[in-house]
Amino acid sequence: MIDETGFLKQGKASCGVGRQYTGSAGKITNCQIGVFASYVSRHGHAFIDRALYLPKAWTEDPERMAAVHVPEATRFATKPAIALAMADVTAF
């Protein structure tokens, strides 16, 4: 199972924070978005992966990325692209 969750934030210093839609608040607000992958069965569930979504405003600003220690090679990826990479079973 793949899901995204928003984390409401004040200010703009936290990595990936920006004005974006989050279902947690039901509106566009200042937040971070996390993409999560879980294994789910009738026996239970377990988290298997997670990633922080970085909006283009972040990935297009190398100084901002460096200030919060994001690896230099990090590029913009949509939330569906992040989810597909997590679901790629050939990566395991």
- What is the structural class? alpha+beta
Per DSSP E runs of 2 or more residues, the count of β-strands stands at 4
Domain module count? 1
Tell me the series of helices and strands, N- to C-terminal: EEEEHHH
Can you give the mean pLDDT? 91
> What is the CA–CA distance across the termini?
16 Å
Tell me the overall shape: globular
How is the main sheet built?
A: 4 strands, antiparallel
Describe the structure.
The protein is an alpha+beta fold and 92 residues long. The protein has one domain (2-91). Helix content is 21%, strand content 40%. The protein is built from 3 helices and 4 strands, in the order ββββααα. It has helices spanning 56-59, 62-67, 79-87, and strands at 2-8, 18-22, 27-41, 44-53. Strands 1, 2, 3 and 4 form a 4-stranded antiparallel β-sheet that branches. A hairpin with a 4-residue loop joins strand 2 and strand 3. The longest helix is centred in the C-terminal third of the chain and has 9 residues, at 79-87. The relative contact order is 0.20. The mean pLDDT is 91.
Quick gist of this model?
With 92 residues, the chain is an alpha+beta fold. It has helices at residues 56-59, 62-67, 79-87, and strands at 2-8, 18-22, 27-41, 44-53.
Key descriptive features of the protein:
92 residues, alpha+beta, four-stranded antiparallel beta sheet, 3 helices, 21% helix, 40% strand
